[in-house]
Amino acid sequence: MRFIDTLGISHKLKVVEHELCQRIEAELAKLGLTYPQYAALSYLEEKTMATNAELARNSAVTPQTMNKITQNLERDGFITRLKNSEHGLKQDFRMKPKAERILCDAHALVNEIELKTASRISKKDIKKLEQLLDKCLQNLNSF
Hints:
Elements: H1 9-29, H2 35-47, E1 49-51, H3 52-59, H4 63-75, E2 79-83, E3 91-95, H5 97-117, H6 123-141
Antiparallel strand pairs: 1-3, 2-3
Helix pairs in contact: 1-5, 2-3, 2-5, 3-4
């Protein structure tokens, strides 16, 4: 039995996330990418260089899963592995030009899905939604 004060937002968020991820995965598959690969490459595009742990955190996967993802991205010529100058055991990753080209196409596909997702929502409401989700995340990180 659901408690009266429970809003059920966790279920709504999960359903929306699931639908959104399925649609994004289907489109990215046309480029030969998975959503976690796309997330990792997008992070590298923004930060230039990152460790496996940073990529895992940003992509919402475990470090072990990200290790396999980076192996595949490296095998496919999208990233290169570098020794970390500050810590001998850590390795950094950097995007190669091949990744920049495919990432441009991937961004266009994801952007189109996001625009369709928000097509009947005002810009003001989208901004408010982003703010509310940020607050939810802050609340979750505070306990």
